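Closing statement on the NAP sub-project.
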Amino acid sequence: MLKIKEKIPVGILGATGSVGQKFVELLQDHPWFRITALAASERSEGKLYRHAVNWFQKTPLAPRIGIMPVSACLPKLPCRIVFSGLDAEIAGPVEKSFAKAGYVVISNAKNHRMEEDVPLLIPEVNPEHLVLIEKQGSRGKLITNPNCSTIGLAMALKPLQDAFGLEKVSVVTLQALSGAGYPGVSSLDIIDNVIPYIGGEEEKIQIETLKILGSCKDGKVDFADIIVSAQCNRVAVIDGHSESVAVKLKQRCKKEDMIAAWREFRAEPQKLALPSAPDMPLMYFDEAAYPQPKLHRDLGGGMTVSIGRLRDCSVLDYKFTVLSHNTIRGAAGCAILNAELLVKKGYLDEH
Ligand SMILES: NC(=O)c1ccc[n+]([C@@H]2O[C@H](COP(=O)([O-])OP(=O)(O)OC[C@H]3O[C@@H](n4cnc5c(N)ncnc54)[C@H](OP(=O)(O)O)[C@@H]3O)[C@@H](O)[C@H]2O)c1
């Protein structure tokens, strides 16, 4: 652990929201980073953080953070890295203004994900895409996290793509309430109910998966040649997105080979021993009724993606279930892991 004055100062945009709070929870005792700025909308601006936020995380809010004032989202915050949990309505120009001013911005919003020179990064899946930032003209840099359901899906698909190749993927999601932000979906809408529509989500999963699993050549991503079809549902689970996945592989294989590919999967964050990297990025369960959100979402500090129920599929080749913690692996935790990779690869030294 670094001494406090040696830690890299970081700020959080949208610090009061569902993802923003998760950033605060994960960063308040981080070995490399120290929270030095919190920012949100004008509704929160000027208030002490503990008065502006409705804190609903399990870890108590550190007193030092609670008494920090909430700033406006303007590029004059006292930090080097900015983690963004901003609403997509305003994330676009705000994040760009920070990158232009020289900050390293790590975003959870959808706005810049598909830009050619912006990495859509999952450190276990496509760390080589980080080179895209060298093409960015701004003084600072902009890196994005994929959509929360896409992250769990892409992590489960990566070892299959590497070992057997992928032709077609069909996914049906059962997405948690915290994915809709705070206060999110009204209780009258979701208790005793399933909502079979999440605006824009299916399109994001279908296109982002192809960019993430694409290959990076000469500073450009060649999108993966896979057909992906997604159907998304909101369910009455607080945290943890479940996904029922079916795949058609390029090369026929046995179920044991797929399970071995998941169980043996280790990647760059594990090799580099990054602080937020789980020992096991993927955990395959043999139990018939696993994985379940209530039981498995917090595995590996919320960074392990759980897989189970592998069986034959009569339409495609095989089907299985994936579970990932949407605000940790699917948002704040993945963004922090992105920042750790950036630091370890020396990208912060150059500026
Ligand atoms: N929730 C998830 O699981 C998840 C996963 C992956 C990605 N994402 C993405 O992450 C982002 C945040 O999602 P969320 O679920 O945390 O949303 P949220 O709970 O609604 O939080 C939104 C945050 O943005 C701030 N904000 C809203 N309008 C603003 C403005 N005009 N100026 C400055 N700040 C403003 C809010 O501040 P106030 O409190 O002051 O209003 C709040 O801090 C979204 O782009 C979302 O798509 C979410």
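The pocket of NAP is lined by residues 14-20, 40-41, 43-44, 73, 85-88, 90-91, 108-109, 148, 178-179, 181-182, 326-327, 330-331 (CB under 6 Å). With this model delivered, the sub-project is considered complete and its resources will be redirected to Aim 3.
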